[in-house]
Design goal:
By secondary structure, the protein is α+β, with helices and mostly antiparallel strands. It is built from 17 helices and 23 strands. Helix 4 runs parallel beside helix 8 and helix 12 packs across helix 13. This is Xylulose kinase.
């Protein structure tokens, strides 16, 4: 079960990680105010149930042969629950920036750097720590009624099993969990203004739950005693699902958002607070950074400026994104001097700046639609590369790079990644990296796989991209410009975001 930002996917795996069937159920983002991004947890609960049933139905699969269910979920969601188990809020997701002011004060006045060093979660509005502080200050009535502060995974598990449990991996992305002790961090709790018993019981990522609610088992089409393995967050599971769990193996995932990650054997944090550190298992820790601005940039471009591709795609029965990327192929590397800073939703790693804004730089009369499309593809990879640079400083150079997520379907986008990083990019056959990671962790927990490293024998590489070193020179030159531009515009971003906020109100 892979519970993502825009949909939940259920993927049924057979031996050696072979995909038997999958089914996806989408849901909407809710944006009630500028900088707010929420989802209806009830819709997601329904999507989870429907996706599992859909995958089993597509496979015509007899559920008595189902070994178990592993769970992957997006990080940083927050739902406030009352004492009767009713949600007092929607799910406030990672892209929500309402707590920017609280994050700023935690950083400057509340020893935020020390909290980051202990928890591995940079101080940022994405973090449940900042969000809880916002609720305490800005929604005191909700805060007073709060019995539990939970994530979307905990919400699902509560409805499935009647228990509040959270795995170390989701907990390690809250800003409230101490990496060294695997317990809630006392200083972080004080900053949030809550007690440890207002959070769920902490459990390892291999923890098993049994005794599914009969009505939900019936609706899913599975047995009540099917074991569920609590699993981890989608980021660390993507590394496991592409086999990037050895030293120097880097995973690049770009879906709606994106991330660059590598696995280490003990928690590592960064003196410049550029990276996160999250748990996979007690022997595997994932260091890396997320970008807000992945495939969502291409979606914005299609929705706002891609009407001609959408029309043609409808007529021909093809994907409008494929048509847009085909147009971008006409343009050389570097988009003839058009550079895109892809900060349409602020930015997380390595800048952690919710006020950053999107910028096209260098526009000339020679630039056409295809240049803008290619510049968007390249800008997303520049963002990914900036995280790769921070990661290299902490853990050494990448040995190989493995690509997953929706962008991995595009040969052009993968080649831009190889050219920018100057490293060969490997593309595993299965795009469902987080789902496979969840399945592997479940197999390990249930005793079917001794070590999670065995997954490396399952990974079939479907494509390899050698870097074009001439393009690499162009991209490195552009990257230095990208970094300088960000530094020069940092103060101006604060001004324009304040202006936007004022005008939106």
């Amino acid at each position: 079960m892979d519970i993502g930002t825009t949909s939940t996917k259920a993927v049924l795996f057979g031996p050696q990680g072979k995909v038997i069937a999958k089914h996806s159920v989408p849901y909407d983002l809710i944006q009630p105010q500028p900088a707010w991004v929420e989802q209806d947890p009830e819709h997601i609960l329904e999507a989870v149930i429907a996706s599992v049933r859909g995958a089993l139905t597509k496979a015509a699969f007899d559920a008595k042969h189902l070994i178990g269910v592993g769970i992957s979920t997006a990080m940083h969601s927050l739902i406030v629950m009352d004492k009767d188990g009713k949600a007092l809020t929607n799910s406030i997701i990672w892209a929500d920036n309402r707590s920017a002011e609280q994050a700023k004060r935690i950083t400057s006045d509340m020893d935020g750097f020390q909290v980051y060093k202990r928890t591995g979660t940079p101080i940022h509005p994405m973090s449940p720590l900042s969000k809880i502080r916002w609720i305490k200050e800005m929604a005191p009535d909700v805060f007073k009624k709060a019995a539990k502060f939970i994530s979307i995974k905990e919400y699902i598990l509560y409805h499935f099993f009647g228990q509040y449990v959270v795995d170390y991996s989701i907990a390690s992305a809250t800003g409230l969990f101490r990496l060294e002790t695997l317990q809630w961090d006392e200083q972080a709790l004080r900053i949030a203004g809550i007690e440890a018993d207002q959070l769920s019981e902490l459990v390892p990522t291999t923890y098993q739950l049994r005794g599914l609610q009969p009505e939900i088992a019936l609706r899913m089409g599975i047995a009540e005693d099917t074991p569920f393995v609590v699993g981890a967050n989608d980021g660390v599971l993507a590394n496991l699902g592409v086999g990037a769990i050895g030293k120097g193996e880097v995973a690049v995932t770009i879906g709606t958002s994106g991330a660059v990650r590598t696995v280490v054997d003990k928690p590592i944090t960064d003196e410049q607070s550029r990276t996160f550190c999250y748990a996979l298992t007690d022997k595997h820790w994932v260091v890396g950074g997320p970008t807000n601005n992945g495939g969502i940039m291409l979606r914005w471009l299609k929705d706002e400026f891609g009407s001609s591709e959408v029309e043609v795609a409808k007529r021909l029965g093809v994907d409008p994104y494929d048509l847009m990327i085909d147009i971008a192929k006409k343009v050389p590397a570097g988009s003839e001097g058009l550079l895109f800073l892809p900060f349409l939703t602020g930015e997380r790693a390595p800048y952690w700046n919710p006020n950053a804004r999107g910028t096209f730089f260098g526009i000339g009369l020679q630039h056409k639609r295809e240049h803008f499309i290619r510049a968007v593809l390249e800008g997303v990879i520049m963002s990914v590369f900036s995280i790769g640079v921070a990661l290299r400083d902490l853990t050494g150079s990448a040995k190989d790079v493995r690509a997953s997520g929706g962008f991995a379907r595009s040969p052009l986008w993968r080649q831009i990644l190889a050219d920018t990083m100057g490293r060969e990019v490997l593309v595993p056959e299965s795009y469902e990296a987080s789902a496979l990671g969840a399945a592997v962790l479940a197999l390990h927990s249930l005793g079917y796989m001794e070590e999670i490293e065995e997954v490396q024998d399952w990974i079939r590489i479907s494509a390899r991209h050698e870097p074009n070193m001439e393009n690499n020179e162009t991209y490195i030159e552009l990257f230095y410009l990208y970094e300088r531009l960000y530094d020069k515009l940092k103060d101006e971003f604060d001004v324009i975001s304040a202006l936007q906020l004022k005008q939106n109100h």
